[in-house]
Each structure stands twice: as C-alpha cells, then as structure tokens.
Known about the structure:
Blueprint: E1 32-33, E2 51-54, E3 63-65, E4 68-78, E5 89-101, E6 107-114, E7 117-119, E8 130-132, E9 135-139, E10 144-149, E11 155-160, H1 161-165, E12 179-181, E13 184-188, E14 196-200, E15 206-210, E16 226-230, E17 233-240, E18 243-247, E19 254-259, E20 272-274, E21 277-281, E22 290-294, E23 303-307, E24 322-323, E25 329-334, E26 339-344, E27 350-354, E28 372-377, E29 382-387, E30 391-397, E31 402-409, E32 415-417, E33 420-422, E34 428-430, E35 433-437, E36 441-446
Parallel strand pairs: 1-28
Antiparallel strand pairs: 2-36, 3-4, 4-5, 5-6, 5-7, 8-9, 9-10, 10-11, 12-13, 13-14, 14-15, 16-17, 17-18, 18-19, 20-21, 21-22, 22-23, 24-25, 25-26, 26-27, 28-29, 29-30, 30-31, 32-33, 34-35, 35-36
Amino acid sequence: MRRLFAAVLxxxxxxxxxxxxxxxxGSNRDAIWREAGMPxxxxxxxxxxxxxxxxxxGYAGPAVADGKVYxxxxxxxxxxxxxxxxARDNLEGVERLRCLDSATGRELWRYEYERPYFISxxxxxxxxxxxxxxxxxxxxxEGDLTCLDTAEGTVxxxxxFKEAYAAPTPQWGHSAHPLxxxxxxxxxxxxxxxxxxxxxxxxxxxxxxxLSTPSINxxxxxxxxxxxxxxxxxxxxxxxxxxxxxxxxxxGKVLWSVPIDSSYGxxxxxxxxxxxxxxxxGYTGDGGASVLLKLPTGGGEPEVVWSGGPKRSISAANSxxxxxxxxxxxxxxxxxxxxxxAVDMASGERLWQTREPTxxxxxxxxxxxxxxxxxxxxxxxxxxxxxESGDLILASLTPDKYQELSRFxxxxxxxxxxxxxxxxxxxxFAEGAVxxxxxxxxxxxxxxxx
Length: 450
C-alpha cells in the first residue's frame, strides 16, 4: 500500500500556477519545474494517487500538455525478454501512443501499429513524446517517427529510419527524443551522412542531414539533439558515439567537433550548458568520458577546460546531470559507481557522493548503472529525485551535502537491470502533480495543496 503524501506550500499566499511538461525533461529540456506552490518542507501524511490507469511496456516517460497526458508503450504478443545488455531479443507486438485526460486518466484516443523488436532491453519505446501545439511527435524504438494531431490522434506524417536512411537500430533502440525548434524537428537518425537529420515539422520533408560515425556502423547513439547558445547564436549540439559536434540550425553546417570516446556507442546524457561552458559526459568503464568545454567566440574550436577520469567528475549513462541554481556545481549520476555526486565545475572534482537516492539498500556494493532522475524546483536547492527503486524523493542538494527531506513509493520497479528490479522512466511534473509510469500502470499524484 502506498504511503500517503501531503504537500506543504512554499508560501501560503502564493497560489499554485499550473504548468505543462510537453516533452522530455520539461518545457525547456532543462529538468527545472517552474510551477509555484510546490512543497518546501518534508511531506507527511497518506494520499493515494489521484488516478491510476493500466499501462504496457515502456521506458518512455509521459508528456503532459493542455490537459492531456501522452503515454508511449509496447504490447508484446510473442517473444521473451532476457534483458541481456550484450544480446538482442526478438519480440512481436504493437507500439502504441495513447492520449489520456490529465485530470482523470481516461483514454481519449490511441494510435498503434505492428512493430517487431530486435533490440537489447526490449521493454518498450524509450522516447518521451514531444508535444508542439496541436501536434505530437513520437519516435519508436525501431525508428518509427510519427507526427499526430493532438485532438484525435490522426496521422499527419510518418517516416521509418530504416526505410528512409538505411539507418541501423542501435543496440538498445532509438532513444534520442526528437527536438522541435522553430519550424524544424531535429532527430538523431543514423546511416551514412544522416546521423543528424532536420525535418520540416509540418510536413516531414527533409531539410538537411549531416554526419557519419563509421567506426560503429553509423549508429547514431542515444543522446537527444540539444540547442545551445554560442556567441549570441542558437546552434545545435549533437552528442554522438564519436564526439560532440556543433551544427548550424538552418543548414546543418559543422561549426566544430570535439572527439569523445564513449564505450559501446553510449553517448546518452544530454550536454548541459552553464553560461559559456558546456559539460558533456558519456559512458566508459574507467570513468573517463566527461569533458568541460568553454564555447568559442568569433569562430574556432572550444577550449577543453578539463576532462574526467576515475573517481573524478562523472561518467553518466541513463540520467542527464542538472546544474545548481546558483553555485557553479553540477549534480549527476556516475554509472560505474552508481553514485549521485556533486561536481565542482571549476576543477571537475567531486565534492560529495552518495548512493542513497540511486540504489535500493540491498542492491550490493558492486551494483553498476544505479539510476535516478533529477528535477530541480526553480530558484531553489530542492530536487525531486525519481529513484530506480520506485521512490520519489524530495531532497536538498548543495555543494556541501545531500540532505533527504522525504520519500514515498510512487510506482513499483517493474523492469530489470543486472538482476535487480528497476524503474528507469523519467516522470513528468505538471499541474501541481507528478505523472509516473512503469510497465503496469501510469499514475498521477498531486503534490500541491490549496
């Protein structure tokens, strides 16, 4: 039985202001929840979810926009799931996007198609739907990209990356959440000369394509395309298996590229910009894939301020780091140590580290790829942390320490990683509530009070 949860207002005089979470990591893809009226103190009491709706397989987190929740899932009909990181499983089934009423969980419409899977960890799609006004974009694990009308779920246009670009499906499936910016939809696709592709978001017409990564069979990696600001201009940063490359938004012209060697093509975490610095972290077994870059002005290449190493900085996988509100510190999860760590941006040194929010108490000292997803409450040191154990944690993160304020069970960990149960799905925070899914249900839990 779930522990009940009652929230304490930040300020009694400040009413909650509803906000949307229309894509992965929120409206700006920065994992900051900007809604007022959220808890500042440790919550207490007992509350059941506002609603719970059955769900099928999926790592894809929900998106919430305009009173609707978008849930991407996979219903298996044949095949076995082994969750072997080194081998792919064959499944038969249906990939499905469902639209739910955010207040009740009632289904409004669904769109589905038959889709065989041949990937490792095949428990459903990875990419959170991207909502842009009256359209929603969904990228499936085998490279099915679909644009749908949000009112009724009618198909506007669709593409398949294998058919259109001869793009190989990455070992762990397509995971790079599509990015809308202006009139373009940016995707990591794969294939010769098409690791990054910009589409017209209205028609699906290709506007430009760029890059190859021949050393790993032109796979695209797992990191979403990211907009950064450089020298007063917005440019596209693509973190792929051979490094991070900056491209012009309108033509895909390469501005610069910095090599970064991620093991097994595991370029996953989104590059994080803090002022004129860009923190990029990939995964290697020795923890050496992170780098802090100073972005160039007036052209040229970035300056490497420092690079990571064992027990220094972090080598991230599933979870993207989040910077502090004020201090020059970034918080993130090291996949080798399974620790949440505070990293000093000036030096790359760890200020502290803890496994409290990443692993269950019985996970074992050698457990790797312990995961939690971080969301910072705007203008505070409060973080909402979704632990792989299925807990939602409210904690204060400062350069000095990790201080847990509360935690409660939000969903059961229905996945598997290295023999331990895990919940590897990024929740959404909107409408004064958290929306979370596992492989059996999606729930809404209200956090704000009147």
